[in-house]
Amino acid sequence: xxxxxxxxxxxxxxxxxxxxxxxxxxxxxxxxxxxxxxxxxxxxxxxxxxxxxxxxxxxxxxxxxxxxxxxxxxxxxxxxxxxxxxxxxxxxxxxxxxxxxxxxxxxxxxxxxxxxxxxxxxxxxxxxxxxxxxxxxxxxxxxxxxxxxxxxxxxxxxxxxxxxxxxxxxxxxxxxxxxx
Length: 180
Prior knowledge:
Elements (H helix, E strand, L loop, with lengths): L2 H5 L7 H26 L2 H16 L2 H5 L2 H21 L1 H5 L15 H15 L3 H11 L5 H8 L3 H21 L5
Helix pairs in contact: 2-3, 2-5, 3-5, 7-10, 8-10, 9-10
Keywords: DNA-binding, Sigma factor, Transcription, Transcription regulation
Family: Belongs to the sigma-70 factor family. ECF subfamily.
Protein name: Sigma-70 family RNA polymerase sigma factor
């Protein structure tokens, strides 16, 4: 932890405040930092706790006016409470440190593959006329009029083939174990 980082909270104050906080840092930062590292084992987290502890001491001038040993024990108590608060925080309970980012979950395509195979087999069981209309309607997205023009058959025939083709497809799929 550097003196500049610890004193950045006093940047908007007077020069006297910055000097007071720098003196506070020089006198107490190292022992408080060692204490927090001993408690947590986290050197980076200890920097944050020490900074907050020093700022609280700086904002409480009565503590600094007392005997230096009393001020330091007060800072140890404040640091300990900050560590306990961090451990108990909801953010800490939900965060899990991992070495690598986990892979994103992806949907299993096995079911979709089996359904596609079943539909392909069911379509193969249809007559070529019925299959042509069903495929154009459901996979091509064509309307009755467009299929009629493309296949050069009347619209009524397209409707009839679509109706009987879907009925035959339903029966073919039921034979393969697909139920509604």
